[in-house]
Amino acid sequence: MEHNYAVCLLASRRNGTLYCGVTGNLPGRVFLHREDILAGFTRRYGVHRLVWFERTDRIDAAIRREKQVRKWHRAWKIRLIEAGNPNWDDLYPSLFQP
After folding, report:
1. What percent of the chain has pLDDT over 90?
2. How much is the pTM?
């Protein structure tokens, strides 16, 4: 099954500012945020580190999940990140691993 859509959390640093988004091109979208190509929240607050993502093959599921995570309390988002990425490593390079 091909997973074309993703929900992601980006952070400025460990326990820093968080951004939640949904995309059909995760590597491309994160690149735009990392390079400050997109004006707005992520550029203003230096949110460049991909710390969590979840893939799905359905856009409606991705949008629903993004809305769910976006409404969560900050502590819940931090637990979600730390469950799979306890060191808050930047996961962007892993997107290019075979």
Report:
1. 93
2. 0.93
